[in-house]
Amino acid sequence: MMKKSLLIALLAMLVSTTMVHAQRRIIVFDPEINEPARAVTVWADHHKADTTNILGQVTIPAQFDTLYVSKSGYVALRIPRVYVEDSIPLIRDYNHIGEVVVYAERSTNLDNAVRRWTKEEQTEVELRNPITGIGFNMSDVFSRKQRRDRKHARQLEKIFKQMDNDDSPIIQSYRRALRKKKTNR
């Protein structure tokens, strides 16, 4: 009796392990050139099953819901288990660019330049896109550069007002010529 139960338990374990590791082999090929497709990645239920070898063969698990087949330059496939046959045709994607990899080295000069550009860009954006008519920034009150720039702006404004009110004969003749040109149009 003991031998019989031990034999049944051993047989049950053997059957269960073969069921868990049951696999099946399929072939992935390119139907246009009628050759096997190499280095095709095959996924079974979002878990990488295998990559095709030189003969286009791949081993997949016996039990899965959906098979995903992909390779750069080909149309990616998503195939339900009921439609998976012994061979899978992989069609070329002529509109596909492929994988683009960009390698770059980050430098401190670039970081400094980006910081400088963003500071300059911020003032340009504020000038081009005013949200309100009043712009106030507390840091500008304490900034020497901002105070100096405001002082220079006031001085230039005074100079331009003087030039507009200047009664020199050269400026007056220039204004007369401008008025005459406008009336002739």
Any overview of this molecule?
The structure is a single chain. With 185 residues, this protein is of the alpha+beta class. It is built from five helices and eight strands; from the N terminus they run αββββββββαααα. The strands form two sheets. Strands 1, 2, 5 and 8 form a four-stranded mixed β-sheet that branches. The radius of gyration is 39 Å and the shape is elongated. The mean pLDDT is 80. The chain has helices at 2-20, 108-128, 138-142, 144-165, 169-184, and strands spanning 23-30, 35-36, 41-44, 47-51, 57-61, 66-70, 77-80, 87-89. The N and C termini lie far apart (122 Å).
Short description:
With 185 residues, the chain is α+β, with helices and mostly antiparallel strands. The protein has five helices and eight strands. Helices cover 45% and strands 19% of the residues.
Highlighted features:
185 residues, alpha+beta, 4-stranded antiparallel beta sheet, 5 helices, 8 strands, 19% strand
